[in-house]
């Protein structure tokens, strides 16, 4: 195998004078002269093969860089995520997982897939909307919190998005969306990229569109309704008195 000399390794350690190093990709090489000189490069080689790294302890580059120690030091840490996604009007998904992601067929998988994951996917959704706000809208996931009380796994939200058009009394139109949601938790399976730990949102668009239109009632219409209500009230009162006297 050809040796490739690099003045500075990607893991941060400088090569000694006249030192050559070409790390193994552990069977994931795309060519005979490919080198994996860091834990990240091994992961990248595995992702191109569609493989999962199930035991980083056996990878020399990961041991040298203290990969597992870094993971242990990050236990208990969390993050606050906010932002906006622009997507096409077709079914899709987005997710929050530890590590980096890569694309396998029609699914996104995680690069850091250890044999016994200790990731805690407890989470709280402060706000989630599929479009602009309009009066009366209710987003069912706002304020939702889930706490993990067993081994790690995939927490899945299946969202049905309903296109909605809201028009106020000034004829200002807001095109937005409402949605309904169901939830499911799937236990983790070691080495199986379809059950990686994380929080996943799968959304689909409804073929039905909902339209809300505000109309201002005229004064004459208002007075007619008031008179009708008053008349019905007096009629009921008279009927009660007649029945009582009888």
UniProtKB/TrEMBL annotation:
TM spans (from-to): none
Entry's Gene Ontology cellular component terms: COPII-coated ER to Golgi transport vesicle; endoplasmic reticulum
InterPro entries, per the entry: Erv, Erv_C
Top-level taxon of origin: Eukaryota
Endoplasmic reticulum vesicle transporter C-terminal domain ranges (all copies): 25-232
Protein name per UniProt: Endoplasmic reticulum vesicle transporter C-terminal domain-containing protein
């Amino acid at each position: 195998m050809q040796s490739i000399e690099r003045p500075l390794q990607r893991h941060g350690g400088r090569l000694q004078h006249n030192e050559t190093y070409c790390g193994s990709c552990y069977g994931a090489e795309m060519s005979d002269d490919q080198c994996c000189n860091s834990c990240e490069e091994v992961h990248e080689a595995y992702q191109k093969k569609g493989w999962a790294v199930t035991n980083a302890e056996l990878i020399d580059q990961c041991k040298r860089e203290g990969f597992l120690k870094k993971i242990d030091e990050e236990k208990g840490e969390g993050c606050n995520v906010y932002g906006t996604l622009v997507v096409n009007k077709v079914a899709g998904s987005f997710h929050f997982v530890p590590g980096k992601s890569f694309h396998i067929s029609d699914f996104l998988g995680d690069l850091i897939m250890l044999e016994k994951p200790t990731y805690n996917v407890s989470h709280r959704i402060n706000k989630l909307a599929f479009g602009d706000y309009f009066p009366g809208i209710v987003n069912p996931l706002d304020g939702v919190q889930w706490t993990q009380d067993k081994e790690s796994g995939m927490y899945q939200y299946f969202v049905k998005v309903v296109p909605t058009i809201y028009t106020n009394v000034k004829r200002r139109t807001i095109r937005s969306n409402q949605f309904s949601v169901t939830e499911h938790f799937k236990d983790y399976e070691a080495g199986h990229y379809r059950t990686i730990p994380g929080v996943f949102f799968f959304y689909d668009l409804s073929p039905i569109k909902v339209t809300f239109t505000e109309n201002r009632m005229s004064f004459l219409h208002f007075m007619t309704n008031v008179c009708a209500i008053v008349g019905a009230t007096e009629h009921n009162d008279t009927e009660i008195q007649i029945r009582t006297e009888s």
